[in-house]
Inverse folding.
């Protein structure tokens, strides 16, 4: 006795032959005879025929099997379900798919691998949206962190005229003393206290704050300290750093070609001169270092200093300039303490002690040999 599966295969074969171009009357007689043999034959045939007529898609589900051929049982559900071939007649009421369509879709889905069924096409897009949203959150958090730590919370600029001195107290307790004809830009943030020495000289009495280094920049160099006292002077060709308390780290930007330039630690008593040729450090006593900073009390100190350099120092604090009229007297060595506001007294002493004579003009004092 044939099994139900065998009966179904035979019934499907009859259906395929019936719709073929070579169907004859003799074939119909044989089909009728087969149907009369068993109720199971008739049920199987009628069920398949009803499905065939209702859906009219067995050929499509046959994955390209030509009309008249019987697709294998398992192959019916392996062909894709082309949406373009769906017609209104295939839909049920209210736009719902018909029963055959649901059966075909179910078979199509069952042919897919479990992994594929678990990953619908929309999931990659959803994952992409999640990843994009996560990335945006990270960026926003980074920006917020950067703003909190590096955004300037207080910024101000200060400058002095020729002959002027100014104390600038900062909110953190530090005090900056600006020398004559100097200019700075102070930027305070939660992570750093930054002073851009744009011109001249300034002395820094730094309040201790390990969480916020105190950075004085001048061109491509930086003098960094945490709780110390030091002086930075910016000239055209060099930078001078004098440390009277604590330790300062002198850093430089990379040199030509990206060559890295090492940093230099300057303990108290150090006098460092930084130029294109490098950094030269003179280590002495704190007292000796302090003598270079007597400008804060209104004096200039010279120790075996060339007259040309001494004249340049007076000119930093006075609008009326001292000019070396003869190159031969520029190398004369001078010493002593002088009020930088009294250049006339300095010139008068020169005339008394050196072969120098002064020619006084409205804006300049010209020194010549005598």
């Amino acid at each position: 006795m044939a099994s139900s599966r065998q009966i179904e295969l035979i019934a499907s074969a009859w259906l395929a032959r019936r719709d073929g171009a070579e169907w004859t009357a003799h074939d119909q007689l044989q089909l009728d005879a087969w149907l009369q043999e068993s109720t199971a034959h008739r049920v199987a045939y009628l069920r398949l025929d009803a499905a065939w007529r209702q859906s009219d898609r067995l050929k499509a589900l046959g994955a390209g099997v030509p009309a008249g051929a019987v697709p294998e049982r398992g192959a019916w559900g392996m062909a894709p379900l082309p949406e373009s071939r769906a017609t209104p007649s295939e839909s049920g009421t209210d736009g719902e798919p018909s029963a055959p369509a649901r059966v075909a879709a179910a078979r199509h889905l069952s042919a897919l691998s479990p992994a594929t069924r678990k990953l619908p096409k929309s999931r990659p897009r959803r994952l992409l949206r999640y990843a994009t949203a996560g990335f945006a959150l990270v960026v926003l958090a980074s920006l917020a962190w950067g703003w909190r730590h590096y955004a300037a919370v207080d910024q101000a600029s200060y400058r002095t005229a020729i002959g002027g001195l100014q104390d600038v107290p900062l909110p953190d307790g530090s005090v900056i003393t600006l020398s004559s004809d100097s200019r700075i830009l102070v930027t305070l943030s939660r992570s750093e206290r930054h002073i851009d020495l744009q011109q001249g000289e300034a002395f820094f009495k730094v309040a201790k704050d390990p969480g916020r280094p105190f950075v004085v920049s001048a061109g491509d160099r930086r003098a960094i300290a945490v709780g110390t006292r030091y002086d930075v002077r910016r000239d055209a060709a060099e930078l001078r750093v004098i440390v009277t308390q604590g330790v300062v780290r002198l850093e430089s930007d990379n040199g030509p070609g990206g060559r890295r330039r090492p940093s230099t630690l300057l303990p108290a008593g150090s006098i460092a001169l930084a130029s294109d040729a490098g950094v030269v450090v003179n280590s002495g006593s704190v007292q000796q270092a302090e003598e270079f900073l007597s400008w804060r009390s209104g004096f200039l100190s010279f120790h075996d200093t060339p007259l040309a350099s001494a004249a340049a120092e007076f000119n930093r604090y006075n609008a009326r300039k001292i000019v070396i009229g003869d190159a031969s007297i520029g190398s004369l060595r001078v010493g002593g303490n002088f009020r930088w506001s009294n250049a006339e007294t300095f010139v008068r002493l020169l005339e008394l002690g050196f072969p120098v004579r002064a020619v006084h003009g409205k804006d300049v004092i010209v020194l010549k040999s005598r």
Notes: Residues 76-99, 112-119 have pLDDT under 50 and may be disordered. The two ends are 144 Å apart (CA to CA). The chain has ten helices and 18 strands.
